[in-house]
Amino acid sequence: MTTGLAKVRNSGGWGVETVDVDAYLARIGQPRREPSAAALIALTRAHVETFPFENVDVVLEQHQGIGLDVVAGKLVGRPRGGYCYEQAGLFAAVAERLGYEVQRTVARVQPRKDGPYTHMALLVTVEGTRHLVDVGFGAGILVPMPLVDGAVVDQAGWPHRLVEKDGWWVLQKQDGDGWDDLHELDDRVRSRPVDYEVYHHYTSTHPRSPFTGRLVVMRLAEGRFRRLIGRELTETRPDGTAETRTVAPDQLGEVLEGLDIVLTAEELEALLRVY
Fold first, then answer.
1. What is the distance of C-alpha 184 from the center of its chain?
2. Where are the beta strands (DSSP E) in 23-157?
3. I need a labelling partner for 98 at 20 to 30 A (CA). Which of 123, 217, 265, 268 fits?
4. pLDDT tens-digit series, residues 48-99
């Protein structure tokens, strides 16, 4: 049997040994546990409920990269969040250090709309079953999804499932009587660190990226999904009801704090200049 230490030593240059696992666990309010399906669910849920999906540094054009030291300093050391490369990268490192088998892969978001093949997703094996662990998917995955064709999992009140189509695993969300495709991935793909550097460069700088030029913040909790896109803050519930309001500049700091993002005075001032 492969030990957790051996996995770290053979983790493909990801630098997982640099992450302070105890500090991470303290940040999300979780104890250190032996790998199990139940422990993975608790770890994933706590991560999503702690760290907001956000692109503040991208909007400010001051993103310091996706190295684990930078990411841990931002998410663990501060009341901040990040987008998929930051969140999934940190979670993968912690999970490996805890003894889980982790595969880093990539998904195409909104495949029906020809979305980019840039989203960082994780496949985590525990108790003989592979799971999609998608802590960096801002659109709303709270707990792991078993890689089982057609298996439905409740995600904070919204049913989701994975279906296999022509060798691809498609993540879907129930919409009325039908299902919407959220993203698709090939579970045979094993990404390398340089792949995410390339994806991150596109996502954080390209003018057609959905994360440049406008603020994007997402928060998921049981029965509640909040999304700030530009100046529009929308709260949606599983029954389909939603409320939207415009966030004025003088309200932005307070709204971000309510979404668990605490900026310095300098960061907030800079954000207001482009808001």
1. 15
2. 53-54, 101-109, 117-126, 129-133, 145-146, 152-155
3. 217
4. 999 999 999 999 999 999 999 999 999 999 999 999 999 999 999 999 999 9
Which residues lie closer than 8 Å to 11 by C-beta, 6 or more apart?
96
> What is the amino acid identity at position 9?
R
pLDDT in tens, 172-198: 999 988 999 999 999 999 999 999 999
CA distance 123 to 262: 31
The pTM assigned to this predicted structure is: 0.94
CA atoms within 13 A on the CB side of 265: 0
Question: 64 is written with which tokens?
Answer: 């310091």
**Which two structure tokens, joined as six digits, stand for 219?**
């928060």
Residue whose structure tokens are 């482009």: 274
* Torsion, CA 146, CA 147, CA 149, CA 150, rounded to 10: 30
Which tokens go with 225?
A: 């999904």
* CATH number for the domain whose boundaries are 4-274: 3.30.2140.20
Which residues lie below 8 Å from residue 208, measured CB to CB, with a gap of 6+? Answer: none
Q: Residue 163 in contact with residue 150, Cβ under 8 Å? A: yes
Strands of the sheet with 178-185, listed across from one edge: 145-146, 129-133, 117-126, 101-109, 178-185, 168-175, 158-165, 152-155
Show the tokens assigned to 237: 């519930």
Among residues 103, 64, 117, 110, which one has the least CA distance to residue 86? 64
Tell me the C-alpha distance between 80 and 135, whole Å: 15
Q: Which residue has the tokens 């792949």?
A: 195
Q: Mention every residue, 6+ apart, whose C-beta is less than 8 A from residue 38.
A: none
Segments making up each domain of the chain, as ranges: 4-274
